[in-house]
Each structure stands twice: as C-alpha cells, then as structure tokens.
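Record type: monomer structure entry
Structure origin: computed from sequence
Chain ID: A
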Amino acid sequence: MNQRMTILASGLLTLLACTLPTHAMELEIGKPAPGIKVEQWARGDQVDSFKKDHVYVVEFWATWCGPCLRGMPHLSELQEKYADDVTIIGISNEEPQKVTSFLEKPEWQEKVRYTIAIDPGRNMWNNYMKPIGRSSIPTAFIVGAGGDVEWIGHPASMDQALDSVVKGTWDAGKFKEEFAAEQKTRALMNKLRKPMAEARNKKDYEALLGYYEEIASADPSNPTWQVNSFKLLIGPMNQSEKGYDLGRKIVAADGKDSRTLNSIAWYVVDSNEVRKRDLQFALSTAMKADKITGHKDANIVDTLARCYWEMGDRSQAIALQEKAVELAGDDERSREGMTKTLQEYQRKIKEAKTGTE
C-alpha cells in the first residue's frame, strides 16, 4: 500500500524506524571507525577488521523491527551490486538462538544475502550508536576505504552516499556539516516531544503547528515537518487555503523526493480528516512523483489511480491500478492490498452499470 507520512511524526524518517534505549556521547564523521568485535557470525564470512581499500556498511537491526525487515531485500541487492567493493554487515543485539532461528526460515534465507553478526553484549552498539545518541533502528554507518566513518543514517537513504564512497567522490566534510545540523534538530525534537504529544492529546492544533514550524525552521532541508504542517492545516485545522499554499511551495521546492510527493498526494485523496480535497493538486503532485520514478513505483501508481478514480475517470483509474498490481511484484502485502483496491473499483463500476439498466 502507499507510503504514508502521518501528522504524528516523532522524528526524522519516523515511519521507517524502531526505537531502543541509548545515551549520547560523540562519534565524528571523517574519523576512524571503531573496530569490529561481536560474539557470533551468523551468515557470511567473519570480518576481523576493516581492510584498506574496501568499503563496509555496519547496519544495526533486530528481528522484531518491521522497518529493518522490509529493508533487508534492498541491502541484499546493494551487496550484490557492489560485491567486489563492499561488505554489508547487519548486527543484531538479540540472543543468538533468536537470530539464527529467524535466519533459518526459508523466506529470510532468500531475502538476507549479506553478512550477519550477533552482538548480545552490545559492544558494537556501544561503540557506534551510543556515541551519536542514536536509538532508532535500522541505522547504518558507511566505513570508507581508508577506515573512516563516511556517512550515518537510515539504510533506505544511503544508496547515493554508498555509490559515491565506492567511487571515491564522496564529500565527507560537507556531510559532516549536514549531520551536525541533523543532530541539533534531533536535540530540538527530543525537547519538544513531550509538548507535542500533549498538544496532540488536547487537540491544540495551533500549538502543534507552532512546534512543527519551529522544527522545520531548524532543519529547512528536511521536508518532513513542512509536510506535517500541510497535513495538519488541510486536515484537523480545516485551513485549506493556507494548507494548499504551503503544499504547493513544498512540491515546487522538492525536485527528487518521490516519497514525500506521494505522501502529500495520498493524504489529500485518502485521509478522512481532509474536508476539502484539491484533486487537481493531488494529481499533479502524484504525476511529478511518478515522473521521478519512471512509472515504476507501485505505491505512486496506486496513488495516481486513486486520483483519477476520485476525479471520475474510471477507465484510467482501472488501467493504473492494474499497473500498480503488476509493479508490486513479489511484495505480497502491497500486491494484496492493491488487488483488493482494483477489485473494489471493478465492483463499483459493475454496480453502477447494473443500476442504470
């Protein structure tokens, strides 16, 4: 189904992360990465140290973390793409038996095709995650050919960075500045988390909007909080004119983030909180996302179909929904949901024809 960014965001990439306890110290971009010390290697060859002229990805995950599991097939694809240049190491802090039993299941034997390590003593967690005050998983660290930490973030967004590190064109200095700004934003989010929760519970949307705008001002490069403001405005606050004005600014400024664009369009056509649906805005936004992805993203095509359905173009909606089902491929959950939507469209068309006969 569609990737939905809700107005209840609690952090950067909040839809894609699970949370564990931590405390903050310090670890720097461009400095040597901590060494490798784990209790057990569950899949792939043992890695004793970071070899020169080879790139590594150290990724923290858990069997209970849905976003971690959804990202595993893509990590496998990256491992295969950079087979000669990169070693991806997924590290779980869980008990060995739990991890090995999970990996023995046929589904995960197929989907996990990279190195897996088990570290119940949390040596790696303490050396990587704690120093940056990070608690969300999955989180990945790219260790460059020189042994330095080059990039930190959600593995779903590391493709470009990994490619640049492998090619030797990565600007670690620039990313260090960006990461420092992100850390400041995280600190602000932690400070505002309780007030935001209270505002949501009290339905004090003016206060909640103020918090969203404060975080957006602190991190203007991240559209998440502007999108949250947009959804709050056209949804619970029912300030459509102001909300769609903001939405148009976000879409105009956002050149490549298809997920953000799709999230905006889907909210307009799907959310029960939206009282005034600007279907033309939703359609143009979804079309921009579709163009970015080359008409190959099932979620975005699914959104396009919904836009046309709501606008009354039934034949175009059916054609696009069929395409979405096709694009869903082996993603059983998405394919099942999109197939149900297609069947619902077909049923309503049939009922409409029966009613006119």
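Annotation 1: The radius of gyration is 22 Å.
Annotation 2: The longest strand covers residues 55-61.
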